Amino acid sequence: MKNKLKLFISTLLAATVLLTATSCGNFLNLIKDAIPTEAVTEAVTETPTKAAAATQTEPPTEDKTVVLSSYKNKSLSSAKSELEDIGFTVKVEYEYSDTVEQGNVISQSIEEGTKVVLPATITLTLSTGKENTETNPPKNESVSSAPSQNRVDFYHYTIVVPDGWLYFSNEITGEVTFYESYNYSKGDSHYGRLFSICFFKSEQEMNQYINHGRPRTYLICVSNGLYFAYNLPTDVQFLSDSTSESKYKSAQGQIQDVIASMQFS
Predict the structure, then answer these.
(1) Which domain holds residue 245?
(2) Is 136 a member of any domain?
(3) Are residue 94 and residue 165 in the same domain, yes or no?
(4) Residue range 83-93: mean pLDDT, rounded
(5) CA 15, 16, 21, 23 torsion: positive or negative?
(6) Are residues 179 and 224 in the same domain?
(7) Which residue in 56, 59, 130, 210 is deepest, having the highest Cβ count within 10 Å?
(8) 7 band by pLDDT with thresholds 50, 70 and 90
(9) Helix (H), strand (E), coil (C) string for the chain
(10) Do 153 and 259 belong together in one domain?
(11) 250 part of a folded domain
């Protein structure tokens, strides 16, 4: 009986192993048949291609180099447009000139023929034309001295004028120019100019004034819708002797106090 039972169990185990092996084989065949051959091939061949592409680097870009042309006597719009198209950042400065037409280039910060690696910055010096001397009184026209109380009424304001100062008021523009009297009286030209006070209807109008040859112009305040500013000379205003220089510089030291004394109507 025991022998028959052992034989039965052995036969059952063998049948189970055979059945399991057959089922697994059929299952693997089913999976294999379900996956297209093309997809397998593509998956195998695509990975190395992507890996190779990832290791590739773009060649370095070379800096652009140009040989600079001359922009002297060209208009600002023409020179600026051409330079910006090349790759320059353009800055502009202003200067009086008796020979270069107003609005044209006097000089450039990088000389003609220079090899320049871009991008780069260049400064153009622009002509504001001949120096405007309209606010200076002609020598045969008298200037005024400070009154006894030293406070003088001008357009829309009053101001304290120190002893030893002269002033001239332009009736057309309203600009008032102040002078140190010693240098003014000794010089053949308009020596002794200390500063001018002027006013404008808008900030844009003031900026136009600055850009037309008055770079040392500074806003004082805005009063009654007008922009009041003062302008300092850009060149030497005293004679070459030590007395002239001393008197001028002493008066020059009073400028801020005079401006601070302004009272607006």
Answers:
(1) 144-264
(2) no
(3) no
(4) 90
(5) positive
(6) yes
(7) 210
(8) low
(9) CHHHHHHHHHHHHHHHHHHHHHHHHHHHHHHHHHCCHHHHHHHHHHHHHHHHHHHCCCCCCCCCEEECCCCCCCEHHHHHHHHHHHCEEEEEEEECCCCCCCCEEEEECCCCCCEEECCEEEEEEEECCCCCCCCCCCCCCCCEECCCCCEEEECCEEEECCCCEEEEECCCCCCEEEEEHHHHHHCCCCCCEEEEEEEECCHHHHHHHHHCCCCCEEEEEEECCEEEEEECCCCCCCCCCHHHHHHHHHHHCCHHHHHHCCEEC
(10) yes
(11) yes
Tokens of 255: 């400028």
pLDDT tens-digit readout, 29-58:
544 554 454 544 444 444 444 444 444 555
Round to whole Å and give the CA distance between 217 and 236: 17
Give the pLDDT score at 41: 46
- How far apart CA 165 and CA 17 sit, in angstroms, is 124
Number of compact structural domains in the chain: 2
Q: Stretch 131-145: mean pLDDT, rounded? A: 54
Please provide the distance, in angstroms rounded to a whole number, between the alpha carbons at the two ends of the chain: 136
Tokens of 124: 């153009």
Amino acid at 154: F
- Nearest CA to 179 out of 171, 9, 189 is that of 189
**Residues 115, 68: Cα–Cα separation, whole Å:** 6
Q: How many CB atoms lie within 10 A of CB 180?
A: 25
Domain shared by 161 and 122, yes or no: no
Please report, as a single letter, which amino acid is at residue 53. Answer: A
Question: How big is the chain by its Cα radius of gyration, in Å?
Answer: 44
